[in-house]
Design a protein that fits this description.
It is a single chain. The chain is mainly beta. It has one domain: Porin (Beta Barrel). It is about 10% helix and about 55% strand. The protein has 2 helices and 8 strands; from the N terminus they run ααββββββββ. Strand 5 and strand 6 form a beta hairpin.
Amino acid sequence: MPVWHVSAAVALLALLLAPSPATAQRRGGGGLLQGPISLGPRVGRDFENHAWSVGAQVSVPVGSNLELRPSGDLFFPRDGDTGWQANGDAAIHIGQGGGLHAGGGIAFAHPGGGETKTGYNLFFGLSTAAPSEQLKPFAELRWTFVNDTSPFRLVLGFNYRLGR
């Protein structure tokens, strides 16, 4: 799937989730957004392909315990060309503090020198920051299933909450 299809889908999703000006003035807000959007960098290690990764993610809260999390990563394998992966994930927060989360979604993986393939992600993570904190570090265990492979990645990063 071309990269512009993914960009168009993310832009359409953002338009659908954003509250209209009239609902933003109403008490209690409106639209599907249930809090401020967060974004931040992340780094990781793909243990099967012996590659380091660097990327970013956006967290869009659409329910009290549900977030949409589009993200992208560049991979730097020990042997081979740089590759990339774009993800359309959703995460559910588990427990009262929301520190544990689990989720999954679609993955578009492009290994260096190869063609783009579609698969899916599963992940489990932990954030030690309180829900009210503006800066939230996290750690995730991620698996991406493409064709007959499912490399395991450890990802560390932080999200910065925009607005209040």
